[in-house]
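Appendix B.2, paired examples.
Example (i):
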Amino acid sequence: MTAPDPDRLNDLGKRLDEIQARQQAEKQPPASQSGIAARLGTELVAGLIVGGGIGWGIDHVFHTQPWGMMVFFILGAAAGIRGVIRTAQQANAGAAKDIEEK
């Protein structure tokens, strides 16, 4: 019985690794629509809560009720909307990339 050729074994190992990597990539589920919707909602709500909280804190410290809350609530809404737009653009770019690959 002869010893196996190490070069052939290395080549076989590399091919198996490539096949496994391809199979893992195919198993990756696409981003679900409900997951994206939840992320968009979270982005918007987080912006509103953070903006309102900062405004409330400023009003509480500087006794400027209701101006700090109003200004920072609007800024939080703008930041939340900006985050939603950015996330939606990323999701669209990922979907377009998936379509082009297929």
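Example (ii):
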Amino acid sequence: MMDTRDRDKVLLLTKEQIQSVLKIEEVIEAVSDGFKAYSSGNAVVPFPVALQVPEHSGDVHIKPGYIKGYPTYTIKIASGFYDNARLNLPSSHGMLLVFDSSTGWPVCLEIDRAMITDVRTAAAGAVAARALAKESISRVAVIGTGVQARLQIEALSKVRKFKSLAVWGRNPDKAAQYANEMRERLGIEVSVAKTVQEAVTGSEVIVTATMSTNPLVFADWLSKGVHITAVGSDSPEKQELDAGVLATADKVVCDSIKQCAVLGELHHAIEGGLMKEKDVHGELGEVLLGQKRGRESNQEITVCDLTGLAVQDVVASQLVYERALKRNIGSFIRV
């Protein structure tokens, strides 16, 4: 509970200040706890609001969330304006508004420019891989060359060791730049695949991190024992996996079954008549809680459909707020 003497003070944090206290290893553990809270019924997560700005190729997502017993609740506003490259501006922006859960008073404004979203999304991919991928892997594939494609692989490296990474991107120059950067960052072999199929074939973990509206990965390309983490589909029109991938998989796991049935890869499988909600193995939080089994053999094909949950923002924003207070980072403004 906040001190009533400080109710008019709000901590203001910039992206650079947030970056100084946000460590991926800590976020992985926090996000894991968030998924457990969600699937155990201890989270209040309304369905996200999506605002479209079509004339500027923009979409805005508003996600409120609260975990019972938490000292704060969070409302996140995150935008993607995909024509911004023409203006030499980043496509993503956003902020998180953190409130005292006992009074409703604002306590922290985290102007992260979508960085917390990026990190917590990558952390979710690592949590999924830790729960569903084989313990021993050698080759990983990533589809996409953007910020999320980088962070997903960095986060994956915290939970699984692997020797090689294959990357595919629509722009060969960006794919080559990605390969050079990740080779230096992770100290592993990184190759540029000419096609998605070349990247996917023989890989034991596949991460899709694009804004594609057409399927990129198909079932007959997959090897036994592969795990796929799909993070790009967070609105009905987006799709990275052919619906046959989900229908073929031994286990399909979602961050939220209801949300994925509307926004995620699961949405396309249901719409195509290949799956129903009841065919989903379970939610990631259920697997983490031991309520549903994770990987049971090295031959299983597993898919985790991640559309992004507000609980990830709640735990990450609280972590940032606590670390900033402890390290005396940021500035207070009166409201």
